[in-house]
Design goal:
Layout (H helix, E strand, L loop, with lengths): L8 E5 L5 E5 H10 L3 E6 L6 E5 L1 H18 L5 E6 L5 H16 L3 E7 L8 H14 L4 E3 L4 E3 L2 E8 L13 H20 L1
Length: 194
């Protein structure tokens, strides 16, 4: 900004849109004459590009733009749903509905089955339960792997499916649709009278 610019010459963009390549001190003097500042906006260009603007307003707009970008971001969180190997049907449905809600919000779901005592010998029950959950949620999310056993727990992480953006179909004019609809009726009418 102003005197801190190190380049010998800069491409100066004035408020009216005109540009000139000037020695830096001359560009700073012209900016001061307009009551504004000379701010480098593209330091890697040859020569560097500098705008004649109000620096306070420029920093305010930059800060505002960064905040807007931050608001539009969505952080994906991992929500956990815990099961036991002998979870009843109603409890399973209740927890599955939580997983559905989490996936619809765009979060990942970590489904975990805890084994206590001798239950760990029946790991196949936990595997069956998690595979059933994966099957029930296949329309909303994809598993990031197969169910994995770690110690006395078995888990799988299910991520939300990417939403496909459908291309908008071009609309036909209303007059063309009316003509298109009238033709088949006429053709049908002429064959009936013949």
């Amino acid at each position: 900004m102003n005197e801190t610019i190190r380049a010998r010459e800069v491409r100066v963009v004035f408020p009216d849109g005109s540009t000139e390549v000037l020695p830096t001190p001359v560009g700073v003097r012209k900016a001061k004459d307009l009551g504004l500042d000379l701010v480098v906006v593209a330091p890697t260009a040859v020569p560097p590009v500098a705008k004649v603007i109000d620096y306070g307003e420029y920093t305010y707009q930059e800060k505002k733009r960064k905040n807007e970008a931050k608001k539009k971001q969505h952080r994906i969180e991992i929500k956990e749903v815990k099961f036991r190997p002998n979870t009843d049907e109603h409890d399973y449905d209740f927890k599955k509905n939580h997983a559905v809600r989490f996936l619809e919000e765009g979060n990942k779901v970590k489904a975990t089955v805890f084994f206590r005592g001798r239950e760990v010998t029946h790991a196949n029950l936990g595997d069956k339960l998690l595979r059933q959950l994966i099957g029930d949620l296949k329309e909303l999310g994809d598993p990031e792997g197969l169910p994995r056993m770690e110690g006395r727990t078995m888990h799988v992480i299910i991520g939300p499916k990417k939403k496909k953006v459908a291309a908008p179909k071009p609309k036909q004019p209303a007059a063309a649709e009316a003509v298109g609809e009238a033709q088949p009726a006429e053709a049908g009418g002429s064959s009936a009278s013949a």
